[in-house]
Structures are given as structure tokens and as C-alpha cells.
Design a protein that fits this description.
Length: 302
């Protein structure tokens, strides 16, 4: 009888450097990779009956993945934030930290090789656990063994408990508290471009997925840190209706147990302010970091 793979029974392991981390994720987990098809005409003047195009498959598109984690008080998920924000400068240029991911199910062990996180979204909704959703790209997706496959790296110890947080939200703009706060978001976007990896010589030897051409190198083109802050429109903030600023500081904190838990200290932002109408009128700051910090990991911490 065939044995199925169930997502809810699977585990996610991140292998970075010599260490391995068993990351606890929400059910919102996906990954895939496709192959690129090159179609060509087969109809000729001498044979008009060939109505369907021929095909050639020699390379794979970059793989994609996404998952979400709760930022707990134990902070076992810190490796994910580190991979999102920090640079790898070992090659002499600023690149994202690359890692491998292993998905272990009840029947298979799958590997995503050469992963980089391209997007990270924080959602600071009231009365909701603090959640980080990430997505990214990888070089290759493959099945490397069954459920008993020996994973590489030194497994890092994890806390015996996991405590999601429902933090208090504190947002300041140029040192002043945002009054009547509703919600806030923060997004980190790492824009990359894959180096062309298709050559005529290599394509001629492709016979299957095992020797197809896979992405190998990428360049980091730019980084965008942005988000929005929503407040109720009241008599106390009506003087700030429909405003903008091209140079301001935005400070986003979550407070747990009276202490700062998450902190995004964004010096040098722009924002535009817009209004929305529902049962209650609101105003929203749409902001973006315009300065270039040396390392995002020093200004976005938890």
C-alpha cells in the first residue's frame, strides 16, 4: 500500500554553516520548482500536417518557498530573522546568507539547496500573535532520501516550551507616539537577480532532471524596508490629515511583560498619509526607509 506524505506531520530543518535548526512553522508552508520549456516549430513547407510544436527542456527555474513562524518569548526562531536581515560578506560583496532547507515527512526527505529569503512580513495586529511570514528562492529541489535520511549539521537545542506573544504595540514618529493606534506592518524585501546559467554546450548533454541546468549564482540588486501604520481619525490628530514627510524617524516596538520584545528603529524614512472610510474613519501612514543602513540586523531586532 502506498504511503502518503502529510504536511502536518512534516518537519522543517534549516542547515546554515555547521549548525542545523528544527524550526517550528505554521501550516502555511509551500515549496515548488518548475522546469522551463522551449517550444519550437516543426511544420515545414514540405510537411504541413505537423500542427503541434516540438519541445526542449534543459533547465530548471529557481525554486520557491514560503512559511510562517510565531516569534515566541523563547526566541528559538532568531535564525530566521538573522537570515532575512543580515549580510554574508565572506566573498567580498554584500550578499544574503544562503542556507539549505530539509523537509522531513513520514516517507521522504526533500532538500531545497542554496536558499535565500527574499521577503519577510511582520504583522502587528492587536490581540493576535506576532507572526513573521517569509518567502524566498532556492537553486534546486530534490528528494534526497526517505524519512530516515541522516541530516547534516549539529542540531541546535531548542526550548522545551513555545510561548507565542500577543504584545502591546508602541509606534513613534519623530519621537512622538502615534495616537489611537489600530495596527502596523513591516516588510523587508530583498530583490535579487539570478545570473544566466544556460549554455549551448551544457544543454546538449541534458537527458533528465538529474543533469538539467539549475540556477547557481545571484546578485542582490536592492533592499526595501517599508510598511504602514494605521490610526483612528479623531479630533486629537485631525491637524495631521493628508500629510507627508521625506525625512523622519519611525520607531516600532512591541512590549511583552513590560519590556521591549521586538524593535525596528528606522532612522531616515519617508511617509505619505492617506485616509480611509469604514464604520470608523482611519488614517494610514505608508512609509519606506530611504537611508542605507550598514546592516539591517542592527536596526531590526528581537
Amino acid at each position: 500500500m502506498a504511503e502518503y506524505n502529510f504536511l502536518k506531520e512534516s518537519q522543517l530543518h534549516i542547515h546554515y554553516g555547521s549548525n542545523r535548526y528544527n524550526v517550528k512553522i505554521t501550516p502555511s508552508f509551500s515549496f515548488s520548482q518548475t522546469f522551463a520549456e522551449d517550444a519550437y516549430e516543426v511544420k515545414t513547407l514540405h510537411d504541413q500536417t505537423k500542427m503541434f510544436q516540438g519541445t526542449s527542456i534543459t533547465k530548471a527555474n529557481p525554486a520557491n518557498f514560503s512559511f510562517a513562524i510565531h516569534l515566541t518569548t523563547e526566541k528559538d526562531e532568531n535564525i530566521v530573522l538573522d537570515l532575512l536581515t543580515d549580510y554574508d560578506t565572506t566573498s567580498g560583496e554584500q550578499l544574503l546568507k544562503s542556507f539549505d532547507m530539509y523537509i522531513v515527512s513520514s516517507e521522504s526527505t526533500l532538500k531545497l539547496e542554496g536558499c535565500v529569503i527574499t521577503t519577510g512580513d511582520f504583522n502587528f495586529a492587536k490581540n493576535s500573535p506576532l507572526l513573521l511570514t517569509v518567502s524566498g528562492a532556492a537553486k534546486k529541489l530534490s528528494r534526497v532520501g526517505d524519512e530516515n535520511y541522516s541530516l547534516p549539521g549539529n542540531l541546535q537545542s531548542a526550548s522545551t516550551t513555545r510561548t507565542p506573544t500577543k504584545p502591546l504595540l508602541d509606534v513613534e514618529i519623530d519621537g512622538s507616539d502615534v495616537s489611537n493606534l489600530v495596527t502596523a506592518t513591516l516588510s523587508v524585501q530583498n530583490n535579487i537577480e539570478w545570473t544566466p546559467y544556460e549554455t549551448l554546450q551544457a544543454s546538449l548533454s541534458v537527458t533528465s532532471a538529474s543533469n538539467a541546468m539549475y540556477p547557481s549564482k545571484y546578485s542582490l540588486t536592492d533592499r526595501v524596508v517599508s510598511g504602514n501604520i494605521t490610526q483612528f481619525h479623531t479630533s486629537g490628530n485631525s491637524s495631521e490629515y493628508q500629510t507627508f514627510d521625506t525625512s523622519t524617524n519611525i520607531d516600532i516596538k512591541t512590549i511583552v511583560g513590560g519590556s521591549t520584545f521586538f524593535h525596528a528603529n528606522l532612522d531616515g524614512c519617508m511617509f505619505t498619509k492617506r485616509s480611509s472610510q469604514g464604520e470608523v474613519f482611519t488614517q494610514t501612514y505608508d512609509y519606506r526607509l530611504v537611508t542605507s543602513p550598514s546592516d539591517l540586523g542592527t536596526i531590526i531586532t528581537y
